[in-house]
Amino acid sequence: MLIGLIAFWGTHRAAAQQTQQRCGIEQKMALLRSQNPAFYFKQKLFQTEITRQLEAERNTKTQRQQTQNAREILEIPVVVHVITDSDLRTLGGVNNSNISDAQVRAQIRILNEDFANATNTRGFNLNGIDTKIRFKLATTDPNQNPTTGIVRVRTTRTSFDPFNDAVALAQLSGWSTERYLNIWVCRFNSQSILGVGQYPVGTTIKGLETETGDAITDGIAVDFRYFGQGPDIRSRLYKYGRTTTHEIGHWFGLLHTWGDEFCGSDYCADTPACEYPNNTNDTTCVDVFSTCNGGTSTRNMTENYMDYTPDRCMNRFTGDQTDRMWKVLELSPRREKLVKYLRNLNIPKTTALTIEVSNNPVSGSEFDLKVQFNADFQDFTIYIFNQSGKLCYTQSIKNSPSSLTTVPAGALPAGAYFLKVTTPSEAATVRLMVLK
Ligand SMILES: [Zn+2]
Fold this sequence. Notes:
The protein is α/β, with parallel strands linked by helices and 436 residues long. It has 9 helices and 16 strands. Strands 1, 2, 3, 4, 5, 6 and 7 form a 7-stranded mixed β-sheet that branches. A 4-stranded antiparallel β-sheet has the order 13-12-15-16. Helix 2 (25-35) crosses helix 3, helix 3 packs across helix 8 (319-331) and helix 8 (319-331) packs across helix 9 (333-343). The site of zinc ion (ZN) has 6 residues, from strand 1 and helix 7.
């Protein structure tokens, strides 16, 4: 397999000189494989773990449909870091890496059209799926101050390398990758690579959670000439913002439709195996066929966002891709934290640990406990003791923001209790009355 991959690389590097290439993640992973093989293989293991869990859950087609229908819209706050060597006062214009606000906002609109499979947009496909994932420019910064979600930073560097400069970009400007999707827009030094993403990591694979350096770069980087849509974008093939859609697909753990190998797997049964990426210089969207399954010729899903076809040819995520994205939101610690944070957006941090029981005295089978503290995320434990000091209930919560937790009370006899919450550095107790 190793030899096969290298051979594959050889042929496709040559091809990339003639044609622009949507994305650099394949080269980035090849670099990672040589520099940190253990981490590379753990990322591969995460993909098989996602598959294993999905297969265990996916009993029938109907159940799967029900799961998809039951998902609530998840709107992810996005920060766009515009990294430029231009005067910050001059926005937009052809070849100005300090792109206009309108170009950024067009990109967010396109993301929402694509991820929603929105009718009457370029992101609609009759067989496409609404992923229920949406994006919006962040409205508060990491210090709770209002923001446009667009951060502009001027640097003396004229360009960045798509494979080796992720840390340099993150150091120029970067927000918590546990609370925002970070997008860096800059000029790449290679005209052939349009964008590059970073795969999520998963704690179920021992070792992945402790990888250093990975957190600050967790986002995507896109060359400003292919980001968004508008009069300043002159690319013939890549002018509808699909590079960003594609790279965010990687951020959610999706692979290329050819699995980065000849007839490789992307772990999705509903994207037919294909021999190669469908890179082309032709703006027309033509059918391409592969014979990965013996002699039978199957049409490549060239309309899939995870292919390399021109922007106007792409308009589809599949059901399997959507299920994998949502599974990553569960299994990858930074994505999971982001979801928890979004679900508790209305519960701000406090300077000291504060706890509050809703409807105390409690008369129902459960109650809500609001826990607030001065950390973005931390572990905490809930204890309920009776009057004699006997422990009646305990629950440990991992990696949580300030949040609301539902606590079951049905098993508690009527009476007075003490509810205690401990964090790694603080403790707080309230009296709890249970009525029956
Ligand atoms: Zn890619």
